[in-house]
Amino acid sequence: MMYILLFLSVIISGLSVLFVNISSKNLKLILSFSGAFLFAICALHLIPEVYSAGTPHIGVYILIGFFAQILLEFLSEGIEHGHIHVHKHHHKEHAFPYAMMIGLSVHSFLEGMPLANIGTHSHDSLLTGIVMHNIPIAMALMTMLLQSHISKRNAIFWLILFALVTPLGTFTSYAIGQNMIEGFAVYFDRIMGVVIGIFLHISTTILFESTENHRFNLIKFIVILMGAGFALFTM
User: Fold this and answer.
1) CA–CA gap between residue 220 and residue 223 (Å, rounded)
2) Is the pLDDT of residue 11 over 90?
3) Are 194 and 42 a contacting pair, CB within 8 Å?
């Protein structure tokens, strides 16, 4: 069921772009909700649990995840937090964004890895956070693919490939964990630390960008509070 949920959340939200006109303003509101939820589950669930496990130097792995996401965004160009860029060839033809797909896929693969440790209390919170995070990403990805003037069939093909990446990360991590006799818990704590760092970078970037020109926006503030409140509800 977890694999199905991860897959379908991307497919359904991505395909919704074909049937519903989602404005950039509404996409930013969805991103604000997901960003607040990600930040809240890090503070309420993921960070306390990973530190309580007592794995040495776990903060180093959180920093690794944080700065790794900065590097990944040189490839993905920030589509994880709603940035949509359409590239063109010199002959004014739209180019397929292979680098963006690679960066986004690595990001999603890493996110799925700690989900293989289903015994942790924070598993359901992490799963919910990834699903909430993938919904606006899938919408932004599908919008960008369509704006690149590739066919709908090809756009759906790439959406399906992206939908498979997070479950693949979970399955790969499960296979690695099954073959580890010692250090099983430590392995997952370190992977979780990396993902927490990624989440902190993504969520804080979304929240900082949610206020344009440093002006207070009541609707976005309410949406952010709703996202954080939803995380509180999952405790």
Assistant:
1) 5
2) yes
3) no
Helices 184-209 and 24-41 cross at an angle (nearest 10°) of: 140
Q: For the chain, what are the domain ranges?
A: 2-7+31-81+94-233
Calpha distance 109→63 (Å, rounded): 18
Kindly state the greatest CA–CA separation across the chain: 57
Cα–Cα distance, 179 to 57 (Å, whole number): 24
| DSSP secondary structure letter of residue 116 | G
Supply the angle between the helices 152-178 and 184-209 in degrees, to the nearest 10: 140
- State pTM to two decimals: 0.84
Neighbour count for residue 12 (Cβ, 10 Å): 12
Radius of gyration of the chain measured on its C-alpha atoms: 18
Distance from C-alpha of 7 to C-alpha of 5, rounded to nearest angstrom: 5
**Of 116, 118, 129, which is closest to residue 170 (Cα–Cα)?**
116
Angle separating helix axes 184-209 and 98-112, nearest 10 degrees = 130
Cα–Cα distance for residue pair 33/207, rounded to 1 Å = 9
Burial of residue 221, with CB atoms counted within 10 A of its CB: 0-12 exposed, 13-18 middle, 19 or more buried = middle
Contact 224, 207 (CB under 8 A): yes
Burial environment of residue 21 by CB neighbours within 10 A (0 to 12, 13 to 18, 19 or more):
exposed
Residues 75-122: tens digit of each pLDDT: 877 777 666 655 554 444 556 778 888 989 999 999 988 888 766 667
